[in-house]
Amino acid sequence: MGCEGVNMKIESVVLDQWYPVATENMPVAGKAYHTQLLGQPIEYGLDENAAFYAIQCNTRVRLPVFRQHYTYWVSLGNPPALFDIPEFHEAERRVLATVPVCVRASGLRVIENFLDMAHFPFVHEGTLGEMPYTAVKPYRVEIENDELYARDGEFYQPMAAFSHEGGMNIAYIYRVCSPFSALLYKTCPLQPAKKDLVCLFVQPCDEDRSIVHMPMAYLDDSASLEDLRLFRQSILGQDLAILNNQVPRKLPLLSDLEISTGADASSLAYRHWLSEKGVSYGTFQNP
């Protein structure tokens, strides 16, 4: 990707955020990588001392960088402290990440799809859902410490994890930490009293094109890291067919543009939460 800039006024609530550009298993020391963030060309990498850096290509100005949650973060603005995820510090968990995936959709669309349990039997049949178990039970959506939570979610899954055979009801808790970052806490079939953690960190390349970074902190100690990674990668791959074909590619904040049901409570709350924050980057505006 070249280093040709895009001039665009972006609201501070979007500009002043940390964004992922890679997970820790990806960069090779001494190699420069090029990507795009909020329409701006970025160069990043690990220097000869394995220290992470990022540069805005147009100006050659060094950008704020951060390494946390098995992820390398960059900001084009003045970001606050990054949200905390205690699970990444627990010794019993196995930390890994999928390969970054490009999506032809707004990063906000990607987060909304992540929050949607209703599509499990239709898009992820045989793993996260199956017929005739299509009903989404009522769940709670609330704001806590300026983050969005969806709690008490539950869904029957025939293969909820790579190392578990047979179906079971899986408890779901979603946490949206920032407009482009969300977490999923779901029942670990091998340790039902605890929950695995799946992160969805979205890099908005521009308003309708994104890169998905997905680090995880699993409790599964029986499967290989590669098997766990491929299992989650296959599920993400199934979502691509939906995400790449949504119209419009940007996320409509007005609910009357699309039909919603009770199962869409988290999506509606997410859109309202974005609207209250003043997010317009990546959203669909009526002509």
UniProtKB/TrEMBL annotation:
SUPFAM superfamilies: Bet v1-like
UniProt keyword annotations, A-Z: Oxidoreductase
Molecular function terms from GO: oxidoreductase activity
Gene3D superfamilies: Naphthalene 1,2-dioxygenase Alpha Subunit, Chain A, domain 1 (3.90.380.10)
Source species, domain of life: Bacteria
Domain Vanillate O-demethylase oxygenase-like C-terminal catalytic: 104-276
Pfam families: VanA_C
The keyword Nucleotide-binding is assigned to this record: no
Protein name: (2Fe-2S)-binding protein
